[in-house]
Amino acid sequence: MDEPEMTPEFEEWLTAIHSDKKPGIDVLRESEAHFRQLFEMHRDVMLLIDYQSGTIVDANPAAAQFYGYPLESLRGMSVSRINAQQESEIHHQRQKAIAGEQNIFSFDHRLANGDVRTVESHISLVSYRGKSLFFSIIHDITERKRVEAELRIVTAAFESQESMVITDANSVILKVNHAFTKTTGYTSEEVVGQTPSLLKSGRHDADFYDEMWDTLKRTGKWQGEVWDRRKNGEIYPKWLTITAVKGEDGVTTHYVGLHIDITERKQAEEKISNMAYHDHLTGLANRALFYDRLQQAGAHLQRNRNRMGILMLDLDRFKLINDELGHEWGDRVLVEVSSRLMRCVRSTDTVARLGGDEFSIILLDVPSEEFVCKMAEKVITVIGQSLVLKGDHYEVGVSIGICLASSEDQDMETLVKKADAAMYQAKESGRNCYCMFDKNQG
């Protein structure tokens, strides 16, 4: 139904019956006749209600059609029969109307078939045929209320804690929510009219985006992990879900992007991974990561047809320090040794603590046996430098076993055993030295 109309004729009639100047009987009769004509013909629902008894004194044909009752049934019916609200609430609203505090009210009315509709009632207190009545013009606002409720839900969802972007079919940004501006650092004014490429971090190549759009166009949806760039230049990970919005003709009209910042989750994953694959004391690769890197090194060896080296290290005189000063100072020695080992190797090499005072180094792309020997000598020199513990100077040494491997060697664990055997040979040779595994003895 359309919005209720207050025509000039109605305004004239209402003015007349509310006027302090009492009109003559002929004017009243003429006004009443004019009212009856408008009342009967008007397309809006109209009721005249005795506000003391709550009885419907009169109703127009539009009311009969809306409520589903014959006019004869509506006339004389108690208004409580169509009211679907508590009587106490209705009474409170009536008092406001009588006092002139309010003249527009919202009610739930029950139709003859049991349906409940939300109506907006424009109420005036009038004197008609010697009675004080409510004159109500009623408008069905059920659909409007439904749309308003849906709009509130959409608005609440849009302004959720998750970043949201709405673009047109050409990916031009039309609207972003507050969570988006908080996450990215961009204001709405800065991004509306732009495309989401404004956020690209440079970490993904063209193939990544081609695959994304191919999936989106085929299925209407895409989701996955994306690295984007905030306004301040910080690159961060997010989980992105893009949904295509299609019209009745099946043609895409908009895209809705939902972004969840997963920085904290990624940091937690990295922390868990670090705990699982790194030594808790020194931060070096642990035994699990060492063997994983060893398999990777083996694959690298086969691809590049070159050589690699495995060094097994065992500290000398460490037990004496540990027993004399205690485990706390022993741990400090292990941390310092780890730091010194990292300074000896290249960024492509792996240093691992296998447990206790045992360490290992994986050297990739070894140019010669001489290179490995010099690396071992460097490690012995650096580790042998004096340590100041509790004000006194202490020294530790290191025994190193070396095994060189070529592309012909495929069993990585066997190589580790060979390097380990060479290390024990170094200990037997007087410690603080290195030994190369002798294939002739293997």
Can you offer a commentary on this structure?
The chain has helices at residues 8-18, 25-41, 61-67, 71-74, 87-99, 142-158, 178-184, 188-191, 206-219, 263-277, 287-304, 318-325, 327-344, 369-383, 412-428; strands spanning 45-50, 55-59, 104-110, 116-128, 131-140, 163-168, 173-176, 221-229, 235-246, 252-261, 308-316, 350-355, 358-363, 387-389, 392-394, 397-405, 434-436. The model is unreliable at 1-7 and 17-28 (pLDDT under 50). The chain is elongated and about 125 Å long. It starts with 7 loop residues before the first helix and ends in a 6-residue tail after the last strand. The chain has 15 helices and 17 strands. The strands form four sheets. A five-stranded antiparallel sheet has the order 2-1-5-4-3, sandwiched between helices. The protein has 442 residues and is an alpha+beta fold. It is 42% helix and 27% strand.
